[in-house]
What we know:
409 residues, alpha+beta, 2 domains, 22% strand, 8-stranded mixed sheet, 3-stranded antiparallel sheet, 18 strands, BirA Bifunctional Protein, domain 2, Helix Hairpins, elongated, Serine--tRNA ligase, single chain
Amino acid sequence: MLDIKFIRENPEKVKQACKNKGFDDDIDKLLELDKKRRSNIITTETLQARQNKLGKKDIEEARKIKAEIIKIAPNSKKIEQEFNNLMSQIPNIPFDDVPVGKDDTQNIVIRKVGKIPEFKFQPKDYMEIGEKLELIDVARASKVAGTRFGYLRNEAVLMEFALVKLAFDLLTKKGFLPVLPPVMLKKEMAKGTGYFEAADKEEAYFIPEDKLFLAGTSEQSLIAMHAGEILPEKDLPKRYVGFSTCFRREAGSYGKDTKGILRVHQFDKAEMVSFCKPEDSKKEHQFFLSLEEKLMKSLKLPYQVVNICTGDLGKPAAAKYDIETWIPSENKYRETHSTSNCTDFQARRLEIKYRDKNNKLNFVHTLNGTAFAVGRTLIAIIENCQQKDGSIKVPKVLQKYTGFKIIRT
C-alpha cells in the first residue's frame, strides 16, 4: 500500500494516479477518516497519560478516564477498519514516464526484435500441429477436469523441462537463487502482494475450508517469503528464480481464447523476483527486461517489447514491460512475458524492510519478471518452428536438454 503521509501531502497526485489506472477510490473520504483516526489516537493517548499520573487516592478520577477511553474504543475500531480497507484499495502510483492510457490498446511498442518467419507453405496453428504430433490433448483434459485444461504429452513435456532448465541455468549464473515455492498462500500473505482486491479477486481460486488462496503466479509466494523480515543491506539486491504451477479463473475472458492452451486455468511458469534498495529499482527493472530478452533471443523467436500504459498496469505496479511473441496463425504478437517494478507497494503491505548503513529501517522495492510462461512459449515454438512436413524444429539452445532436434510423427 501507499504511505499515508505521502497521500496527505499529495492528494491530487494520488487522485490522478487512481484515475489514470482506472480505479475509483475516494481519497477525500480516506483523508477524512485519517483525521478522525489520528484525533482518536491523540485523545486516547492524552487520557492514558492523565491516567498514568493519578495516585491511589484518585480512584474516582481514574474511573471517569477509563470510562471515556472505553467510550471512544468502539468508534476508533470502526474508523480504523474503514481506514485500512480504503488504504488497501488504493493502487500504486505510476512513474511519471509511464504512458497514460485507458487499456491495452494504448500500450506503446518500444522495439521489435527478430525476423517474422516467411513460410513457403500454408502454416498451421499450434493445436493442429500439437494434436497430430500427440503433444497436446485438450479433449481428454476436458473429460477429466473440464474446459481450459490440457495435457502436455511426449516431447512437449521434455520441451517444458528444457525451457525451465535453460532459464535456471542462465539466472543462477546471474546470482538468482533457485526456489520451488508453495502454490497455496494464507489470506494475509495473498492480499499482501496486492493482487487479491477489486477485480483481481475474481481471478483467484480460494479454498474456504482452509482459508488458502492458490497462487496465480510464483511471484506471490516468492515475495511473501520475506514477510515481516528485515534484510541486511549487504544482501541486496536479493534475487530468486522460482518454478511452480499457477492457477487463474480467467473470469473476465469468457468466450476469449477458449480453445487450446493459450488461456487456461492451470499453467506452469518460471518467475524472477528481486528485493532491492529504492534507488536501484529502476535499474533492476531494466536488468530483468534484458534477461527476458536474452532468453527470447536464445530461442530465436520474433518478439516486440511493449511499454504498458497506466490503465493496463494493474494495482501493484508502478511500471511494467511486456514481451509479446509472434504467433503466425494469428498474424500478430501475443504476450509471453511481463516484468513489473512494484516499488515499496508490496513491501509496505508485507512489512519487508532492510537496515541501511546508518541503522535506519527502510522498505525494500520488489520486482518480478517472467522467465518463461511455459504453455505460451511452447505455442510460439511450435508455430514459428514448424516445417513443411508437419514436424517441429527444436530451437538449437534447447537441443542439449531435450536430446532431440526434430519432433515428428
